[in-house]
Design a protein that fits this description.
Elements lengths: L3 E6 L6 H13 L6 E6 L5 H7 L5 E3 L18 H7 L3 E4 L2 H6 L4 H13 L3 E6 L3 H5 L3 H10 L13 E5 L13 H18 L2 H6 L2 E4 L4 H8 L6 E4 L6 H10 L4
Parallel strand pairs: 1-2, 1-8, 2-3, 4-5, 5-6, 6-7, 7-8
This protein binds 2-phosphoglycolic acid.
Length: 252
């Protein structure tokens, strides 16, 4: 059975004190047993967040990781570094990494492969741009992104993968895909996985929606049958909003 997940991507926001108070605020809030909660602070704060959340059920994950094991890659962070402080999951392929840091499908496949072979689980992001949708090309673009990356992986690795469909036109724009648009794409994604693997694999993978999810629209999106939760940017920086979004994904 796939999991319901709400993950907060803090991006390049919060200084140390702000990060600590947000973590502490989240720690004090009620939990919902049927929703896995994750937060992704910036690299310098990961260890502190892990320590503060040690006995909680909020998981601390990374926003990115490098595709090489180690070496002369100034400014980069390796799988081993993350694992050595206790991080067990990373986001890979966020549209901002693709757009501003030229991460293409082949680099992303290298990243995913290295992470998974070292037991660093992955939230893999992908999604079409506005032009793709306007030209009615969005399904093909998404299929290509998947075929060039995660659909090349061995079937047994799929238990370590969560997908995050994030239409680029909806990220940080205040514009959200309609629940119907999200559902139709998530269903299509499951079909792509079914074609490459089997029903169990396609039914067991959690597929998150990302792009301007907020307390006011979370429930109508999460209630759709192929949407298992969300990857939340802006609204994850506010503890109350993030908590309402987690609650919106719970059936308890
Ligand atoms: P947003 O970001 O919620 O601010 O649109 C989502 C994301 O980038 O993961």
């Amino acid at each position: 059975m796939r999991k319901k997940i709400v993950a907060g991507n803090w991006k390049m926001n919060n200084d140390f004190n702000q990060a600590i108070s947000l973590v502490n605020e989240l720690k004090r809030m009620d939990t919902f047993k049927d929703v896995s909660v994750m937060i992704s602070p910036a690299f310098p704060f990961l260890k502190t967040a892990l320590d503060l959340l040690e006995n909680s059920n909020i998981e601390v994950i990374s926003q990115n990781v490098h595709q090489n094991q180690k070496g002369a890659f100034t400014g980069e962070i390796s799988v081993e570094m993350l694992k050595s402080i206790g991080v067990n999951k990373t986001i890979i392929g966020h549209s901002e990494r693709r757009a501003y840091f030229n991460e293409n499908d082949s680099v992303l496949l290298e990243k995913v492969t290295l992470a998974l072979s070292n037991n660093l689980d992955v939230i893999f992001c992908f999604g079409e741009e506005l032009l793709d949708r306007k030209s009615n090309n969005h399904f093909q673009v998404v299929k290509n992104q998947l075929q060039n990356t995660v659909l090349n992986l061995d079937k047994h690795l799929w238990s370590k993968i969560v997908l995050a469909y994030e239409p680029v036109w909806a990220i940080g724009t205040g514009e959200t895909a309609t629940p119907e648009q999200a559902q139709e794409m998530h269903e299509f994604i499951r079909k792509c996985i079914l074609e490459s693997y089997d029903k169990t694999t396609s039914e067991n993978v959690s597929i998150l929606y990302g792009g301007s999810v907020k307390p006011s629209n979370a429930n109508e999106i999460f209630i759709k049958k192929d949407v298992d939760g969300g990857l939340i940017g802006g609204a994850s920086l506010d503890a109350k909003d993030f908590h309402l979004i987690i609650k919106a994904n719970s059936s308890l």
